[in-house]
Design brief:
alpha/beta; Aspartate Aminotransferase, domain 1; Aspartate Aminotransferase, domain 2; 2 domains; seven-stranded mixed β-sheet; four-stranded antiparallel β-sheet; 16% strand
Length: 407
């Protein structure tokens, strides 16, 4: 029996909801997670008592807001074991973070014939920006072949890394397959030829301890809303030496050092990448989420997520007519599946009638769907507030869905 790591009825107000008379079973945390009371309270406190813009005024509210915003950056930095809070750039989310790297670093340092290494499992946010960079610069996209179970082997990586490799951009954990990629080993190979390692941490940072230096990354992108924080806030971490050389891509207030009628110079990192009024409440909410996760323990969350993912994977494989995708072990907290003869959207609709929230579609990973040979899948994804009882509800719903469509 796998119990939740927290008291969900106390910490997460949304789990007190009933839908169609059933208690909510939320199995869509890979899309977005729910928000605990401390996060809601931190944002409410800011808006009610300290609401002001940051880095501008010297009145009390502004100083309180600026202090809270700076503290949020320090909290993020500590959480990912960065060497300096200035390496933490606040963005709107993983998508904007990866676009920032592609547009700023990629446009500045890539030349025609340089190679960008990707995998077919990448989320569109870690694929389309690189396609666009390749069009602008003449760089070439190269893809790592996946093994039959959707994993990446180092031998497959070696076959695509070359002296022309300038960037490798990979997800740490697949949002569809639940596979865990060998980022450290890939980064070693990339660095040997003078390239940089860009990591999409949207699915990994919420679920496991993160140490950017041990990961051997040059850039790491992740989102607040997948780790109990609010929507509209994300992080790009980058090595200081790269951030110092990169040009900003958003121009306006507070990202400048000097402006006259003809020219402008930029502020120091991180301000030069955060033009305009930032998502102050979002950063404060993200810091509160990190404090909440840290109090639970990221090691515990990692073990819990993997246990649920592997339990669900094994259980689904036992049901006749159900196909499950990805590796059996290790398997992270997302499980993609199909049921013979039933469209994933129909599966999700039947599940919703029983208050079971899953996702159906291509999961912003159409090249992976093409590789799998399907148009879409259903996906159940878990977090520390889920339990094996939720998986039991999932299994019952699959059997009921099969009976319904057989009728």
């Amino acid at each position: 029996m796998i119990e939740p790591l927290v008291d969900v009825s106390r910490d997460f107000p949304i789990f007190n909801r009933r839908i169609n008379g059933y208690p909510l079973v939320y199995l869509d945390s890979a899309a977005t997670s729910h928000k605990p009371e401390p996060v809601l309270a931190a944002m409410d406190q800011f808006y009610r008592h300290s609401n002001a813009n940051v880095l501008r005024s010297v009145h009390t509210l502004a100083e309180e807001a600026t202090t809270a915003y700076a503290r949020a950056r320090e909290t993020v930095s500590t959480f990912i074991a960065a060497t300096d809070p200035k390496e933490v750039i606040f963005t709107r989310g993983t998508t904007e973070s990866l676009n920032l790297v592609a547009r700023s670093f990629g446009d500045q340092f890539l030349r025609a014939g340089d190679e960008i290494v990707l995998s077919p499992m990448e989320h569109h946010s870690n694929l389309v920006p690189w396609q666009q960079v390749a069009k602008r610069t003449g760089a070439v996209l190269r893809y790592i072949d996946l093994a039959d179970d959707g994993t990446i082997s180092i031998d497959a990586v070696r076959r695509v890394i070359s002296p022309k490799t300038r960037i490798a951009a990979l997800s740490k954990i697949s949002n569809v397959l639940g596979s865990v990629n060998p980022i450290v080993e890939v980064a070693d190979l990339v660095h040997q030829v003078g390239g940089v390692m860009v990591v999409d941490g949207a699915q990994s940072v919420p679920h496991e301890p993160t140490d950017v230096m041990a990961m051997n990354a040059d850039f790491l992108a992740f989102s607040g809303h997948k780790m109990c924080g609010p929507t509209g806030i994300g992080v790009l971490w980058g090595r200081a030496e790269w951030l110092a050389q990169m040009e900003p891509i958003a121009f306006g207030g507070e990202m400048i050092s000097y402006v006259d009628r003809e020219m402008a110079t930029w502020a120091e990192v991180p301000e030069k990448f955060e033009g305009g009024t930032p998502n102050i409440a979002g950063a404060i909410g993200l810091a509160a989420a990190i404090d909440y996760l840290t109090a639970i323990g990221m090691d515990k969350i990692c073990h819990h997520s993997q246990a649920l993912g592997e339990h669900a994977f094994d259980a689904l494989r036992e049901i006749s007519g159900v196909s499950v995708y990805g590796p059996r072990r290790p398997h992270a907290a997302a499980v993609a599946f199909t049921i013979d003869g039933i469209h994933p959207h129909d599966i999700a609709q039947v599940f919703d009638s029983k208050a079971i929230a899953i996702r159906a579609g291509h999961h912003c990973a159409q090249p992976l769907m093409q590789w799998l040979g399907v148009g879409s899948t259903a996906r159940a994804s878990f977090y520390f507030y889920n339990s094996s009882n939720d998986i039991d509800r999932l299994l019952d719903a699959i059997l009921e869905t099969k009976r319904f469509f057989q009728r």
